[in-house]
Amino acid sequence: MKKIITTKHAPAPIGPYNQAVLTGNMLYTSGQIAIDPTTNELFKGSLEEETHLVMKNLEAILKQADMTFENVIKTSIFISDMNNFSTINKIYAEYFSEETAPARETVEVANLPKFVNVEISAIAVMDA
Which domain of life is it from (predicted)? Predict the structure, then answer.
């Protein structure tokens, strides 16, 4: 059975999807972009600030499911320009321990929702 995970501390969905779905001990998050959860408006700032907001949005969803970044086993990172990889990677690394970091992929795409620079989704497991 699946349980829908929702928190006011992450952006509200803008379509027919949920912030995350918990099934058994597995959590699947929707991709997060730099939307300020207090206003549901797109954040306008530096790439570093944008990436931090994406990670904070993921963190809020994980927390709502009683998890942390330590529970994350896989992430998918979509970026609009591979030239931004090192900046995004540096911020991303602040949220994970190198020894227990999840598997991941990073893909450059033509466009992202609202033409943001980065979108990240995660899969987490309880008792990871």
Answer: Bacteria
